[in-house]
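Protein modeling request. Please complete all fields; requests missing the sequence field cannot be processed.
Requester role: graduate student
Desired output: 3D structure, token encoding
Chains: 1
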Amino acid sequence: MSARLVRTPVVSKMNVVGGYARPRASEAPVRHLLSVLDLTHEELEHVLTLAAAMKRDRLEGKADEPVLARQHVALLFEKPSLRTRSTFTIAVRELGGDVIEPGMDVALGGRESLEDVAHNLERWVVAAVVRTFGQELLRDFAAAATRMRVINALTDEEHPCQAIADVMTLREHFGDVAGRTIAFIGDGNNVATSLAQAGVMVGLNVRIATPKGYELPVSVIRGCERIARHGAAVTIFNDPGEAVRGVDAVYTDAWTSMGQEAQSKKRDRVFKTYQVNARLMSLAKPDAVFMHCLPAHRGYEVTDEVMDSPASIVFDQSENRLHTQKAILTLV
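Delivered output (332 residues):
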């Protein structure tokens, strides 16, 4: 059984712990971050503001409030990871907690039911950070958890932690992003979905350029229409040059996502004209930035010339995963 889990708006009901505002325990029942859409506009703003404060404090050598003191977080990763695993591990430890990493041979329903795994883990840990294939499995796991929080560290359908870090990074470079435009070039995948959702929530116009048959799902576009602020919109293109013309940021991702390796040769042919190179970047604004969630396949979706250019902010995005994930853990 899958279920949409209860959410309580928190910004109007905050207490302050160690200088950071967070929900009072009595006013925040068990909550999960499975999608950007699980956040209200106010909660997204809160996470972004808190992440920026945590980043400043870390650069100044200040320790975080130990909101996870004497608590543990489980990392359940069915897919390989460098950035997500590293940053969540560091985030938990810098918030005073520690991580456990049960093997995939015993986690997520392989050896016993998904519900039993959740019921066991929640007796020991305060949260589970899950990186898996299907969003439906993640929802089922979260629905079974009555005590611990569940955070989506990537599914085939959505990647909310990445998108929140992306918005933070854009704000660092441009300030208020309302009214600005970003073009995502490539596959209408999990990264494109979460970027569109988070983007329109802060007033960022999002253009998605994909080959025919690889578009962003219509349901995602309709959902973005309901949550858009400041007149922001998602616009779909098949021509990457048309999508990039005059934008403030250009974003791309791997043409073949994890689990799609059997399609890689076909996808390389289909997406060949969607490479982000110097010619394509020249169609954007002169001060446009380049973004990528990483890992990058240089020479395929992006050239070395663009990846290593002054316009590239890909490692800023990577760095900000740590700070936004600290803020997410604090919120939930």
